[in-house]
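User: Second chain of the day. Same drill as before.
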Amino acid sequence: MISEARLNAEVAELRRMLAESQAAKRAAAKPVPPHAAAASAPRRPITPKAGLPAVTELETVVDQMVGEVKGAYRRHPFAIALGAVAVGFLLGRRR
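Assistant: Same format as last time:
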């Protein structure tokens, strides 16, 4: 049979281990200031690869596409909602 003194000693040891673990987590989780994280990150200029549009051209195309979708929603909201329901139904029936 285990004695009460031995159980108390084991509980004290477990509490000590828990306190050390929590202290280590707190020390590791110290926040890094944003300026320090940004300074340590390598900075490379964004250059377009061969055959790919420049970043500004890509942004323009994406903005145009978003504008067209928003315009279609404003002109035909019922059709967009019906299409969303149809896509949801088809995805729900898929196995």
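The two ends are 59 Å apart (CA to CA).

User: Great, on to the next one.
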